[in-house]
Amino acid sequence: MVRAGHAVPAVAVTVFTGLLAVADGADIWTLIAIVIAIFSGQLVIGWSNDFLDRSRDRQVGRHDKPLATGELTSRTVVVAIVAAAGICVVGSFACGWSAGTVHLLLGVGSGLAYNAYFKATVLSWLPYSVAFGSLPVIASLAVHPGELPPAWMVAVAALLGVGAHLLNALPDLDDDAATGIDGLPHRLGARRVPLVAAALMVAATAILVVANSSTWWLWVGLAVVAVLSAVTMRLPGRAAFYGAIVVAAINVAMLLTI
Question: CA-to-CA distance for 194 and 163, rounded, in angstroms?
Fold first, then answer.
């Protein structure tokens, strides 16, 4: 179940959103509600992704997918999705009606839309942009109902999300193409995906720095991100995607210092 739930990105997204809420001044109960809502929502997205892809994964022999290998049954995953979805709804609205609605519609809804449709289209980047861009909105609304984060913060999160999408898809381009998936990463191709992703990561960080240019040490962070992007985005397998998670972590750390 852990592998089918895409545990690493699920934990990363949960931690990053929780830190944004802490930076906004969240109390312990609000923080707990956010963590429960975000993590359960990520599990719904991850499990449903593998459930919908199970036939394609079997077709290309994905041994890292428990549903494709038979280690997990479809029934087990469906029960888990339903349970996680129930927890997600309760947790989301425990964050407040506005924060909960944004999370369920823009966060989880975008992830499910990607799994069901957008993954195979040139707009495959759009759900990632919307879902990641909604994270600072959720954190802000949960802590300060009716108060939205600055537009630059939403832009930073959205760009990081698109970069993560490109790098997450990179190791699977050939398998996806063999089963009819033709999203943006597949159209860019394996040579251009790391370059575009690196540019998006650096651009996201640059927006954060320029929006807070009076804070000099943020420029150091931008330099670190530029170097890290140049190095890690060309690493094989999932390493580049994990590099994107590190870049996102640096951006969150920079936000916490503002």
Answer: 9
Structure tokens at 247: 């870049």
Measured CA distances, 149 to 9, 23, 55, 207 (Å): 23, 12, 41, 14
* H or E stretch at 226: helix 217-232
Whole-angstrom distance, CA of residue 191 vs CA of residue 170: 10
Position 177 scores a pLDDT of 81
Any residues with CB less than 8 A from the CB of 29 and at least 6 apart, and which? Answer: none
Q: What tokens were used for 137?
A: 């909105």
How far separated are the first and last CA of the chain, in Å rounded? 38
pTM tops 0.90: yes
pLDDT digits (tens, 9 = 90+) for 144-185: 999 999 999 999 999 999 999 998 898 888 888 888 888 999
Round to whole Å and give the CA distance between 37 and 76.
Answer: 21
* 193 within 8 A of 183, measured Cβ to Cβ: no
Q: For the chain, list the domains and their CATH numbers.
A: 1-148 (1.10.357.140), 150-258 (1.20.120.1780)
Q: Check residue 62 and give its pLDDT.
A: 74
